[in-house]
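Hi V.,

You were right to ask for the full record rather than a summary. Here it is.
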Amino acid sequence: MQNIRTKRQILEIKAFTLVESLLTLFVVSFVTLLFYSGVGEGFHQAQEQLFFQDFEALYRESQDRALHSHQEVVLQINETSITNGRQTSIYPQGVRPAQSYRIVFAPGTGGNSSLQKVVFQSRNGFVEYQLYIGSGRYQKKNR
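Predicted structure:
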């Protein structure tokens, strides 16, 4: 008889811990889902910022390559990627160019021969790069 009571008490304790575990799992899942949207948005913004830094580095590298190799370097910006023939950068989710662009860097000087505006559409609006003739400098604007 004593043995039956002991087993019954053990079963009650196991059942209580199971209910407690399920409740804890539910609360943790709810909190995780609640904060996921904020973390996910922050992750996408970080990806966009890294992409734009990568684009700027690719632009400067194309310029330097034209200057030092004394050969024409073309920076192609199309719907799928950005490339200068040696390096390629892929767009993150949510970033696309407004149109295709072709920027030519002159051999020996490294300057581009156009006063071109490169526009990317992102989740937060538009990002414009106004390129300056000859100097290879640019101005970045967020709209």
